[in-house]
Amino acid sequence: MAKIKAASFDDRMTLVEHLDELRSRLIICAVALVIASVFCFWQNHLLLDIANGPLPDDVEPLTFSPSEPFMTTLTLVLYSAVLLTLPILLYQAYAFILPALTPGERKVIFPVLLMVPLLFIAGVVFAYFVVVPAAIKFLLNFNDDQFNIQIRAREYYSFFSLSLISVGILFQIPIGILAVTRLGIVTPDQLAKNRRYAILIIAVLAMLLPGTDPITMLISMLPLILLFEFSLVVARVLGRPRQSDERDLAPAEPPAESTG
Question: How far does Cα 140 stand from its chain's mean position?
């Protein structure tokens, strides 16, 4: 495996070197996932207890085949491993694209990227304590006098894991807003004028959550809209990049050709 080092904007790497670096970083991500998976499998009973937390006390997930308990547990372990290793995966992705960023762009992007794991964790916590319980309560009580409602383990744990991951990703909205405003692509005022389109996009994203019903959709939309408004306030406070940063962000002009 090639030695990995932080490349600078002025470094010139061949295609083979880029591919070699990509392979090395993918190996690091794979090793991190394997280690996290082993740990999560060791604690699979704890993970199952955590995942069953949003369910009513008298409801227990069902399985219908001899292999289903093992395969369902393994699926939950893999989802949990992704959640645990997300900071490492994000860092490796950032480090790989680092050579393409100018010094000014790094000053803008790096502080913003530090918020990624914090917002993701906040989204996962919100989904676990608010979104998933609300969805379970609504779905299990909808026409419950007309159906013999049971919960299959495989479907429930997939729904549970994907809901946490999806809401955690949706909580990255402030990252995108701060990045595009600090890079000077758009201004906070432009985003504010098009607020109705942003709310529409948030509604569509909330609707695409796995197993989302109207009630859960509205519950998911509320914090996302608040995050959007908070991001506009922070973007206005930070303002546009300083002149020194703008010089760093601007592409270098080619040297003038001599006429002599």
Answer: 28
Please, which residues bridge with residue 151 across strands?
Answer: none
The pLDDT-based confidence of 2 (bands split at 50, 70, 90) is very low
Contact assessment for residue 103 and residue 248, using Cβ atoms and an 8 Å cutoff: yes
Q: CA-to-CA distance for 246 and 235, rounded, in angstroms?
A: 16
Dist. CA 245–CA 104, nearest whole Å: 5
- Please give the backbone phi and psi of residue 152, each rounded to the nearest 5 degrees, phi first: -85, 135
The token duo for 75 is: 């699926």
pLDDT at 213: 67
Alpha-carbon span 108 to 249, nearest angstrom: 10
Taking CA 103 as the corner, what is the angle to CA 100 and CA 106, rounded to the nearest 5 degrees? 75
